Amino acid sequence: MIQAFGLTSNARKEHPPAVDDVSFEARAGHVTALLGAPGAGKTAALRLMLELQQGRGITYFRGRPLHRIAHPSREVGVLLGDVPGHPARSVRGHLRMLCAAAGVPARRADEVLEVVGLVSLRDERLGSLARGMDRRLGLACALLSDPHTLVLDEPADELSARESRWLYGMLRAHAAQGGTVLFTTAEPKEAARCADRVVTLEQGRLVADQDAGEFARTRLRPRVAVRSPHAARLAALLTREARTAHRSVEVVREDGNRLSVYGSTCADVGETAFRHDILVHQLADEIGDMGPGAGALRREGPESVEEPRVPGTPSATEIPTARAKAPLAEPRTAHTDTPLAEPPTPGTGASRAQPPTPRA
């Protein structure tokens, strides 16, 4: 497990520290989300935990700080930003180089390529990878030394919905085998859907540490998603009518022609638009983010309604039926992958020759 105590970054000139006295735990066998808007201190907190940034506080990984662990990469797999490496180096060559640096067998490169579905791209250059493939390679790098703990900074950033489901399925499989997973995100719905526990940061401070079910009940709010070429006019009318009727309605202007309306219904918004001859292209109920009254988290674009996942219960696309990592000791038989392979299932090359021993 991960135990972080009093994480505090060094004060910046005329600005408060990016992280201010943050303490939390991420338990083994669970997926924990560190949630916050851009600039909330998520990345700085990870860098403090990994001793990549100076500050105060201490973090224990299964009872030991990172500098007391003989082989840190075998304990903690890390993904921070894009995969570092020369753009002309091949995917397989990059992983084999990391194998040599970590002191693990070179065959491990081929094993993790199979796990993350990159076998067919092993000879591609790093500089030519699409975003989704770069994220897969980043996960392969994090899994390379068969670590107990994964620490990932916005691993699903810029991924499609399908690629995100695949990635979180892999993380769920890792946790199902007793590993610890901590990832950051700016998307509240993503945190509620994919994590067992949600730790929320705002302006560098911890404001909530909740079970994902409690987070969904107390921090997520229903909203009406609206698209209209006359969004500004409609927003003004909705605000004025709510004020006149003494109703608590909040209208948030999104990018372009989108509105998010909190405290109202599709029927009320539609009637207002009809009365004033305002063309509406979309009108839908959603489970939104925390809303303007509960923090400054980034707003999400309209999507279909999806109920938050009950903690500990995977969704239909998250199939934690086999380990997400290959063993160091046993080689596997390579097979041709597909670009969007699902997490490995029992009987494939990704499972151990013997049943895995649960992690401590």
Structure description:
The chain is α/β, with parallel strands linked by helices and 360 residues long. It has two domains: 217 residues, P-loop containing nucleotide triphosphate hydrolases (Rossmann fold); 74 residues, Alpha-Beta Plaits (2-Layer Sandwich), CATH 3.30.70. It has ten helices and 13 strands. The strands form three sheets. The chain has a six-stranded mixed β-sheet, with helices on both faces. It has a four-stranded antiparallel β-sheet with strand order 11-12-10-13, covered by helices on one side. The protein has a three-stranded antiparallel β-sheet with strand order 2-1-4, with helices on one face. The longest helix has 16 residues. The radius of gyration is 22 Å and the shape is globular. The N and C termini lie close together (9 Å).
pLDDT averaged over residues: 81
Please identify the top-level CATH class of the largest domain: Alpha Beta
**Structural class by helix and strand composition:** alpha/beta
What is the approximate shape?
globular
- The total domain count is 2
Cα distance spanning the termini: 9 Å
CATH topology of the largest domain: Rossmann fold
